[in-house]
Amino acid sequence: MTVQSFTDSKVTYETTEHNCTCGDWQFRGSKTGKDCKHMVALKRGLAQEIAKVERFLAIKAHVERVEIERRENASCYLRMMASPW
Ligand SMILES: [Zn+2]
Question: Is residue 46 predicted with pLDDT exceeding 80?
Fold first, then answer.
């Protein structure tokens, strides 16, 4: 099945229980036999759930960044108003 990359929603991998097209499996897992995270997720039926959580965390991080910028702008205006000029 096609699994969306956990870190980049534009990237997808073809994942089966025994194979995956991601770099982790191609360069490490296929030699060591250790499942990559996509195969683990596929086997647990969690791939879509994890993708959803990753997107939520990305949105949350964005919202927090905007909030910090807003606070910095507000304190900048306060300084301007407090200035004698
Ligand atoms: Zn993989």
Answer: no
Q: How far is the CA of 62 from the centre of ligand 1 (A)?
A: 26
54 CA → ligand 1 middle, Å: 16
Determine the distance separating the centroid of ligand 1 and the alpha carbon of 58, expressed in angstroms: 21
Give the span between the Cα atoms of 40 and 26, in whole angstroms: 15
The whole domain housing 73 covers 2-82
Q: How many whole angstroms from 60 Cα to the centroid of ligand 1?
A: 25
How far apart (Å, rounded) are the C-alpha atoms in residues 5 and 38? Answer: 8
Indicate the number of domains in the chain.
Answer: 1
What's the whole-model pTM score?
0.49
Q: Per-residue pLDDT averaged across 23-30, rounded?
A: 94
Please tell me the distance between residue 47's alpha carbon and the centre of ligand 1 in angstroms.
Answer: 11
Name the 3-class secondary structure at 3.
strand
